[in-house]
Amino acid sequence: MKSTATLKDVARQAGCGIATVSRVLNGKGPVSAASRQRVLEAAQSLGFEFNETARALQSQRTRTIGCLVPSLINPVFADAVQALQAEVLAAGYHLILMCSDYDPAQEAEIIRMLIQKNVDALALTVSDAATSAGLMALRDRPLPHCLMFNAPAQGAASYFVNNASASARVAQAFDDEGHHRTGFLALRFHRSDRSRQRFEGYKKACRTRGMAEPLLLEVDQDQPDLGKQLSQMLRQRAQLSGIYASNDYLAIALIRAARALGWKIPQDLSVIGFDGIEVGQLMVPSLATIVTDPAAMGRQAGRHLLAALENQQHLGAENSVPPIGGLGFEFRPGESLGPVRSDMRSNSRAATPLLPLHHSKTALNASQEQ
């Protein structure tokens, strides 16, 4: 049977005031070790349960933290969310998880909704941090928030990987194997600023190394006919000896599409991904990729928000100079990367860029007509 003990009952048994009991149970305010022990023993003996609603009313907090990510299909976001949740649960907070499906308009609506739900803080991955309407709505609010995966923008702290540096490492890996005519497979840039930053970093590194400018191949990851479109793209651009995919999910889909054409990986096409998801090591051929640590992003985001909540009176100063949490990465070799084919090597290095091809329905239909 549920206990009907009140704060007053606990105070009476512990021999102290109600204010002392409240400070102990809320974990806030000065209390001697002896008084704390008496209160805890009294509460336990009476079976007292401090109602969360009452706690929220007293502290003017909901004990909830909102989290927005694009999707849980890509395991990196699930890893970050799990680590974030572990941090906030240990501190007595609950996580409200939402997905934007890489849709900037839906993302802004979700952020507004979470603000209206009076969450105490927000951890976000947005489509484009520099232009995000949701981030703009948070800029002048005293609501702790930070970014995961996105580079810092609009005054928000962030825990992320330097996409340009990581992509330069991919260019080195291709160059070392003789691949100089390559492509970059990405989510459409308005849906993912990370993809754009990876492409820009890769293009710059290719230019520095004297490689041909990489061909940009944009797709929508959630298309039901993604495999078919990737196969058609490969048929039209058979002169590419290597493709850098902006995430491992796309890299794996690309390898499957190539195999559907009867191509061998890496003999006919080398593929490098980004993220380092576990399944990439289990597949045959194993996936060469950039390995990141999404769990570290989630943990650091959680610790940042909890520290901000603990020290909320200093939030104005903290947000004016947000800490930047750039995290490390490493290149993991895999069987999907091999030397360029001998018949492609002689013409593989070129000063002129490859012609662009965007895979919208219009572009695909036009190419069929030609």
Q: Can you walk me through this structure?
A:
The strands form two sheets. Strands 2-1-3-4-5-11 form a six-stranded parallel beta sheet, sandwiched between helices. Strands 7-6-8-9-10-12 form a six-stranded mixed beta sheet, with helices on both faces. It is an alpha/beta fold and 370 residues long. 46% of the residues lie in helices and 15% in strands. The protein folds into three domains: 7-59, 434 Repressor (Amino-terminal Domain) (Orthogonal Bundle), CATH 1.10.260.40; 64-160 and 294-326, Response regulator (Rossmann fold); 163-293 and 330-369, Response regulator (Rossmann fold), CATH 3.40.50. The chain starts with 6 loop residues before the first helix and ends with a helix. The protein has 16 helices and twelve strands. Strand 9 (270-275), helix 12 and strand 10 form a beta-alpha-beta unit.
What layout of secondary structure does this protein have?
Blueprint: H1 7-14, H2 18-26, H3 33-46, H4 52-59, E1 64-69, H5 75-90, E2 94-99, H6 104-116, E3 121-124, H7 133-139, E4 145-148, E5 157-161, H8 163-176, E6 182-187, H9 193-208, E7 215-219, H10 226-236, E8 242-245, H11 248-260, E9 270-275, H12 279-282, E10 288-291, H13 294-310, H14 315-320, E11 324-327, E12 330-332, H15 342-345, H16 361-369
Parallel strand pairs: 1-2, 1-3, 3-4, 4-5, 5-11, 6-7, 6-8, 8-9, 9-10
Antiparallel strand pairs: 10-12
